[in-house]
Amino acid sequence: MTADIRAVLFDLDGTLADTAPDLAHALNRTLAHYGRPVLPFEDIRPVVSHGGIALIRRGFGMEPGDEGFEERRLHLLDVYLDNICTHTRLFPGMEEVLERLCAGNIPWGIVTNKPAWLTDPLMAALPMPCGTEVVVSGDTLPQRKPHPAPLLHAAERLDMEPAHCLYVGDAERDMEAGRAAGMATACALFGYLQEDDRPEEWQADHSLQHPHDLLSLLPS
Fold first, then answer.
1. Does the active-site annotation cover 120?
2. CA quadruple 91, 93, 94, 99: dihedral sign
3. Which of 65, 117, 194, 211 is the most buried (most CB within 10 A)?
4. pTM across the whole model
5. Tens digit of each residue's pLDDT (9 = 90 or more) over 89-135
6. Active-site annotation holder among 13, 18, 174, 205
7. Options 4, 11, 78, 139, the catalytic residue
């Protein structure tokens, strides 16, 4: 899909911001609390985009519904909230992308499955060259990605036709949601991909090796 891009929407974890260090810290603190050995960062990073459930699954080998699963997930999220932007930063090069959007008066926003009680403090703590015009969290609507509703809601808030929006994400559900919403899509290969991910099969319109690659997709 090619489009006249007039707005850009980003996934948050693994796309706009490198949140893995703080989420890995939260998982390892949780593992230690329950007497389990901590994991190397490289083992944790690939699952970060998939949230607390995936992190507890990776750390404890447990599934939702298992006894103690929810207790451990909530412990992890409590630790994470207390350290939500200790080491989290925009991905290198992303600040330049946002500066370009700001300078060109191109609206941008966030569509994430992260709940608002985590999204809002993180966005408030991250230094940005200019503010985002819309943030849609995982609990803003009844639906979450890969459903297109959150992306369509963001486009409506921006008063923008979906066909003029670019959605950037690092997971298959992001590309699925973007296609279903009628938006152009870009896969952030610098994000949190797992070994068995096949981004070449996700039907993204664009593949980004680095945030700087976004600059060529924006209006000059």
1. no
2. positive
3. 211
4. 0.96
5. 999 999 999 999 999 999 999 999 999 999 999 999 999 998 899 99
6. 13
7. 11
